[in-house]
Structure formats: C-alpha cells, structure tokens
C-alpha cells in the first residue's frame, strides 16, 4: 500500500492531468518496479542511478527507431523531469511461452517465426549513425567471454568434474579461437530478446509487440537469437532463417550453442559472487543438465 501511495503522489505531482483510477503492481526486479495504472498504462520506476541512466538511453533510442519497426514497442508518453519514472500505454498481449507456441497450428507457428525474424532484421539494419548521440554501450563478446572463462576456471572448475571442465574448456577455446565468430557487422541489438519480452495476442494468434529495451547495445546481431534458441530449439531458428538474411547458418547455430552455455555460466558466476546459496545450487543443477544434454548429442 505504501508503494501505491508513493507512486500515486509522484505521478500526480508531475502529471496532474493524468487521472488515476486504479493501480496494480505488475512486476519488480533488481533494477525497476512496474505498476499498471487505469488498466492500460504501465509506469516503470528505476531503483538506482545507473538504471535511470540506462532508461534515459532507452527513451532516446526508442524515439528514433519506432517508425522503422513493424511491431509495437513502448512509446513513452510520460517522462518525469529527473527520469525518476516513465509511463507508456500498455501493448496488448501475453508473454509468448513454449506452451502457447506448441499449442498453435503450424501456420501460426510459422507466422510467429516470420514476425520475430522480420523484427530482428529491421532492428539489426537500423543505421547506427542515427544513434551516436544516445551513448549506447559497445559489446565486445570476445573480451567478455574471455573474462568469463577466467572466472569459470577460478570459481566453478573446483566444484565440477574433470570431464565437465574439459567440455567447457573445449567449447570456450573453439569459440574464442575461431575468427569467423567475430566477423560480423556491429548492429543495434535488443540484448535480452527472451520470451517474456515478446507479447503475443491470443485472439489474433499474432506477435503484437516487443518490450524492455533497457539492455540495448551495439554488438553481434547473432546474440539476439540466443534466448529463442534456448526456449524453442534449433529447428525454430532454422525456420526463422527463411525470413532473416544470414550468410552462415551453420556458424550461427554453433555460436548459439556456445552462447547458451556461456549464459548459464555467467548466471552461476554472478550468484557465486553474490554468495546466494540457494541460487548457486539451482544454477549448478542447470549447468549439469546442459552438459548432460550436450554429452547425449
């Protein structure tokens, strides 16, 4: 109740013309807390200064790219003076899940693949010259994963079997030593293109919009396929590539396989550094399952 009253006061102070009738908390993470107002407006409140800075970049970029994308993205109608919060009209739809996808007829599954492929193609072809003033981070995956490998050897290797260490070493070495993995044209990437950021309209059986661009960066466009690969599998990506121009399908799939492992190691490393024992145990199990699945291939 306290959060509701504080958010109401903040919005009333800066936007007195916005008449608040209902408030519902819809989510909270490490970075932000979100509320649904009047059943159709979402307001996000960043928790830290660095999140406010990230949100400022998001506001700047989305305003420049929204006309170049077919799917709906957040359009910030309310921006507080100090970027203490933002508000936008909610986009109709529910998060796309594997269960929803698997329940659909083949024609609608193909339509989802096409919609996502077209969206990523449009995003990845946006001119970076238009975004220079937005201060987006440039991601160097070779450096990032080299650092992750060093952390993995220090923090994770002592707690896993020699055989599993060998598998991880083999995959990191293969990725980092192959120049083809870094011969890409830098692009604007969503950088967190997971199913809980894809809104699917049940009534029309279509993808309706994409949300949460807070991690946007300049980097390897292949990275934006990672979470789709993890959720829906290799065949889904192969079908998507019928609608997305990519010069090397085999290399993409090899990279996604590596990305899926590296992502699990990154999460485990973070929980170890945070000393979150429950999450550490859970993430070791997730890593073990990934390696077991890899051995069975």
Would you write up a description of this structure?
- Helix 9 (about 250-275) runs antiparallel to helix 10.
- This protein starts with a helix and ends with a helix.
- It has about 300 residues and is of the alpha+beta class.
- The mean pLDDT is about 95.
- It has a 5-stranded antiparallel sheet.
- It is about 50% helix and about 15% strand.
- It has helices at about 1-15, 50-65, 100-105, 105-125, 140-155, 160-175, 225-230, 235-240, 250-275, 275-295; strands at about 25-30, 30-35, 40-45, 75-80, 85-90, 95, 185-190, 200, 205-210, 215-220.
What are the key terms here?
297 residues; alpha+beta; Phosphorylase Kinase, domain 1; Aminoglycoside 3'-phosphotransferase, Chain: A, domain 2; 2 domains; five-stranded antiparallel β-sheet; three-stranded antiparallel β-sheet; 10 helices
């Amino acid at each position: 109740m306290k959060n509701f009253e504080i958010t109401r006061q903040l919005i009333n102070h800066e936007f007195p013309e916005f008449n608040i009738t209902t408030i519902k908390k819809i989510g909270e993470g490490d970075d932000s807390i979100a509320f649904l107002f009047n059943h159709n407006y979402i307001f996000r409140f960043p928790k830290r200064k660095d999140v406010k800075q990230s949100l400022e970049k998001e506001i700047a970029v989305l305003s420049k790219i929204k006309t170049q994308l077919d799917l709906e993205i957040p359009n910030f109608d309310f921006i507080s003076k100090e970027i203490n919060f933002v508000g936008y009209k909610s986009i109709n739809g529910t998060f796309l899940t594997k269960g929803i996808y698997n329940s659909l007829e083949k024609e609608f599954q193909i339509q989802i693949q096409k919609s996502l492929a077209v969206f990523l193609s449009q995003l990845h072809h946006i001119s970076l010259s238009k975004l220079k003033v937005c201060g987006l981070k440039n991601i160097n995956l070779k450096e990032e994963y080299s650092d992750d490998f060093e952390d993995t050897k220090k923090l994770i290797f002592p707690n896993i079997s020699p055989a599993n260490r060998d598998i991880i070493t083999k995959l990191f070495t293969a990725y980092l030593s192959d120049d083809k993995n870094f011969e890409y044209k830098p692009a604007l990437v969503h950088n967190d293109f997971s199913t809980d950021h894809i809104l699917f309209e049940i009534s029309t059986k279509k993808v309706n919009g994409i949300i949460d661009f807070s991690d946007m960066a300049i980097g390897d466009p292949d990275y934006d396929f990672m979470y789709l690969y993890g959720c829906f599998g290799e065949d889904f990506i192969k079908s998507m590539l019928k609608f997305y121009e990519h010069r090397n399908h085999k290399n993409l799939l090899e990279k996604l396989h590596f990305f899926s492992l590296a992502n699990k190691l990154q999460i485990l490393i973070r929980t170890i550094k945070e000393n979150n024992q429950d999450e550490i145990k859970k993430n070791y199990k997730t890593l073990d399952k990934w390696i077991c699945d890899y051995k069975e291939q």
